[in-house]
Amino acid sequence: PLPAGWLPALQFVRRGSKAVTRHWKAMHFQRQKLMAVTEYLAPRPAVPPCCVTPRKERVEEDNGYTRLLRRQVEEVFRDNRMVAICQYNSMPDEDVVMMRHYLRKHNIEVKFVLNEIVRSVLSQSKYKNLLPLFVARNILLVSPEPKAKEMLRVLKGVPQINLLGACIDNTILSRQGVENFAKLPSLEVSQGQTVGALALLPSQTSSLLQRGPAHLAALLDEHIRRLQAEGTGSP
């Protein structure tokens, strides 16, 4: 027999994987239905949160450059009697310089503007009906005097610039309206025609009123002359 407390010099220890006794198994479809039916759903609030808490709208402040452009557009519509809106198509720089030169001879300036700036200004003014014209790349032809005839004469030789409409003396006109306005005589001629038409009726009335006394005076003079010729009466 072995003495007490003696251990063998060599021991066999089992080192290996554990026996897997459980594998993953899909849930039965009936239990899946039961879990889906019994799933907890939080009650909806009586009033939607968007109606309780007002939305905070972000107000974007215009920078200094944007305010400057808005002020320039306001001055254009305030200080000029004629503002024509044209569609601008791509053209050589030399043609642009020549067009501006010919227009400047008639005191008409060309203004390149941004549609978003012009639309923001017109939406708060009395020229709201001009908003549909600012949909593409536009330019403004402005003049302190209504030079519609001279403007059409210059634009006739520039097919890249299409006239869309104009505001003349606070009156919005279409392209056809501008052409009809250009056919009208000048202000001095119109005033002369108006004065002549107004003076015609009083002159006719005055001549009608003076015709009777003048005819009577002529008859009396003729009667006196005959009396003097016969020597039977005194003047």
TrEMBL record:
It is found in: Mitochondrion. One of its GO terms (cellular component) is mitochondrial inner membrane. It comes from the Eukaryota. Gene3D superfamilies: 3.30.70.1730. Coiled coil: none annotated. Keywords: Mitochondrion, Ribonucleoprotein, Ribosomal protein, Transit peptide. Belongs to the universal ribosomal protein uL10 family. This is Large ribosomal subunit protein uL10m. The lineage of its organism: Eukaryota, Metazoa, Chordata, Craniata, Vertebrata.
